[in-house]
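ok so for the tutorial part 2 we go from a plain amino acid sequence to predicted structure tokens. step 1 is just haveing the sequence, like this:
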Amino acid sequence: MISVEIDREIEERLEALGATTDSSKTGLSRERLIDALEEDLRDLNVAKRRLEEPAKRWTQEELEQGLDLEGRVGRLCSQR
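step 2 — the prediction. this is what the tokens look like for a chain of 80 residues:
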């Protein structure tokens, strides 16, 4: 169990959302915290995988030219 102090403005927003969704401030806070932690874990796993298995990286110039993986003009960005 943890306790977190929040600003009055955030508490008011939680109260308003809770009234709209028929949820408690605690329930809303718990759901958002879980969502944020899961997203952070996904981001961490992606970062680890990219470090272990580096992929093609594009330079700014390549992006501006719209080059694809084989160096051909593709649709990575709009042509000027």
